[in-house]
Amino acid sequence: MLLFGNKFYLIFISLWIFGLYCIFTSFHSTPNNNKVFEDRIEYLQNEVDSLRQKLAQLQSGNNINDQVKVGNENVQCQTLENEMKRLKRALRSKNGGDGTTSSREEPSMEYEKLRRKIEMQARELTYFTTDQLNKISGKLTDDDKQKWDNVILRFADQSRVLLASIRNITEVDGYQLWREREHASLSKLMQARLNSLQSPIKPCENVKRVTCNINKGCGYGCEIHHAMHCFHIAYAIGRPLILFSDGWRYNSGGFDQIFLPPSQNCTTSSA
Ligand SMILES: *[C@@H]1O[C@H](CO)[C@@H](O)[C@H](O)[C@H]1NC(C)=O
Ligand SMILES: *[C@@H]1O[C@H](CO)[C@@H](O)[C@H](O)[C@H]1NC(C)=O
């Protein structure tokens, strides 16, 4: 009987310890998980810092190879920073802290459209009203004008706060992770489409192309704008763009001497 009693105690104590263990681990599972997040963020922060240092070193030199490296490291830096932002946001919404709703799957189409419409309409209203207020200001006497200009300043302040509040909705509605994922996948899709458009499987000579001369004789911004316009058309009609840039006023050696060419293996115009 005594032996059975001892065994009973042993079993009871084991169960008790096991129970304590379960309670302990379940209480600590969230902080542990957060710790993983925090460690990762700290690691990324260190990586970003060291890349920044390297970048600064490379930028101070003016070796051509180094300049190429600067570009690469810049991209790497950006990628790490984006991941860090994503993690920070995930951590914040996991903790439910600072009033943010935890991350949700995806918004309804109506919600997302309405949010954008409100932002757009508020901005348009600001433009319109500012323009009207300025017009009135031009017709006032000096004394009235001063008072009126204060009204304009107040209105500008209030508009900025309103627009910031509308933008901040994206930080608290829980859909920001979804938005970032959508942006990234859309960007990937477009890049893939442009790549396949610009690198046709058939030999270049057998493909209908769009030839565009960047040499418009206008300013640099205007010429790049023109080239983009050609690219839109090329994409819309499904033909690779051939950018013609011999004797370009901004670099007589051509566009490809400075920038990556729009295509690797389809670069000759049919003409
Ligand atoms: C928008 O959010 C930022 C960052 O959370 C905050 O600093 C700012 O005050 C907010 N602005 C408004 C108008 O709510
Ligand atoms: C051009 O390059 C792409 C990707 O590198 C390749 O898939 C395609 O077959 C190439 N086209 C020709 C004609 O070599």
UniProtKB/TrEMBL annotation:
GT23 domain segment(s): 206-271
Molecular function GO terms recorded: alpha-(1->6)-fucosyltransferase activity
UniProt key word Cell wall biogenesis/degradation: no
TM segment ranges: 7-27
GO process annotations (BP): protein N-linked glycosylation
Protein name per UniProt: GT23 domain-containing protein
Keywords noted in UniProt: Glycosyltransferase, Membrane, Transferase, Transmembrane, Transmembrane helix
Entry similarity comment: Belongs to the glycosyltransferase 23 family.
Region described as Disordered: 91-110
